[in-house]
Task: structure prediction
Amino acid sequence: MIWETVVLALRAIRRNVLRSFLTVLGIVIGVAAVITMVTLGDGATEQVRADISSLGSNMLQVRPGQGFRGPGGVRMSAERFKISDAQAIQREIAGLKAVAPLSDQSAQAISGNRNWSTSVMGSTNDYLVVRDWPLENGRVFTGAELNSGSAVCILGATVAKELFGDQDPLGAFIRLDRLSCQVVGVLASKGQSSFGQDQDDLVMVPLRTMQRRIAGNTDVKAVMVSAMDGVSTEMIREDIEGLMRERRRISAGQDDDFHVRDMQEIVSTLTSTTRVLTTLLGAVAAVSLLVGGIGIMNIMLVSVTERTREIGTRLAIGAREGEVLMQFLIEAVVLSSLGGLFGIALGLGAAALGAHLLGMPFVLNPGIVVLAFVFSASVGVVFGFFPARRAARMDPIEALRHE
Amino acid sequence: MNDTAPESISSPLILLEGITKVYGSGPAAVHALKGVDLKIDKGEFVAVMGPSGSGKSTCMNILGCLDTPTAGAYRFKGVDVGGLSRDQRALLRRNFLGFVFQGFNLLSRTSALENVELPLIYRGVPAGERHAKARDALKAVGLEGWEFHTPAELSGGQQQRVAMARAMVIEPEVLMADEPTGNLDSTKGREIMDLLCSFNTERGVTIVMVTHDPGMAGYAGRIIQFLDGLIDSEGPGRRHAS
Result:
């Protein structure tokens, strides 16, 4: 009987295609809006995640001080790291792929008459391992260069372009502030980070060169660590925290004077922001679904009035109240579900197009598709119920007499 | 009220006893029926006549189980219809009654075949059997070949024949016809009456028909005249013989 009723409903819808389409237009637009918004939002989230993992997803950063502080917050004058801290991490912590102590500061890079303000990064070859950063050209530092603090450097793609244009910088000498050093390599381009920072705007020198010849101290500003595949960064983070507390003689109950930043943590902070946006956009779109539902109720009420004689005939023929109710309810549900399907198709199409135009990944979220469909069907139930009940409760004699 | 005779196997198909129907209440109340007694046996062809407002339509509605009397007893096949719920009356109509209306009351934009199938759908008849029965019913009213035409594509006479096929497809005990020829010219009207007569004589269907037209009433075996909420007179019709 249910199936028969669905067939009857489809027939009734087919009898008036234009009106049926206009009836569900609200639902179509509402569902399409929800799907488009959520899909694009998911795409944006995914893009942020991908951007950050291009920094090295299994990467942790250990810095002195207390990490993030609010605006105006003062960084505690914590004891700096030394190279021995990085060595201790390397020695004591299991499951690490690479450990890179680093020290950076801004400097003026000069080649001939060209001049570029950039940041100089003193580290070891492990830095490139941690960041998963290949060379475009040339070579990494040799062990001798690292140990002796030679005047050699590797250029980021932006610096290479600014200082040398199309020329090959390998073997050329540049000046970093007062230090003259030879270019031995050029890094592949990483592009902008999701914070809008040009990652390629840097010059790498051996850590010892940085300490002795540029900064003039033995400080290590941070230690970057990457975990081996399949090793939980959470566990490594705890291990490092334990080790550093011990090394820095922090007694139980005292706050850390250093901070281990997990990239996963940054990922979740940023993606939660885009999630909130997605939810808001989705909520706005959901309102249009509600409006679509009211549209359905409107047309169903008109339809019930218009079909009074039909209802009278059905009742006279022997339709029970429940059967007439079901007929109109199913008609509303079939209508709104069809609208939902159209809306899903339209929304996914629009999202795919939008993702393409915005250069974002297209992320299909099956959950939201199912949810949108279920929601549109229930819109049919909720808003179809009142008109359907009105039809079912008609007096057959009055209904038959209706002109 | 009258003494009700004990029910027996030979009880009449339709028995009205002291039926009254009052619309509204208080001084504005309208007494549409003022105590009607009527007995109709299986196989009869009864024409109901009377001026408008005489109560004949109200009486038809009660006979058709579309309405319930204010007082009095209506027994259909021995069952007290007054004590049935709305849905129970719907089931009674579904299984035993066929309706033909003055305005045909076909579903628009729906083929003749689908219109005839409608009562079978409510009876839960499976699709294959339903199609076959509906086709047979259309054939019986002379509409073979018109199965897939919609009412808009059919003449008035043809539409009324679709409606009759719809009423007959359930093989009802009683066919209720409310001015079946009211919207048709006399030639078409006579065709419809011939069909009704053939249903009555060949299939033994009991027919109750409301009409204004004495010529059409003449097809019936018995004519009942309503006046002012009561049965005014009863007489034999002259069964047509051509």
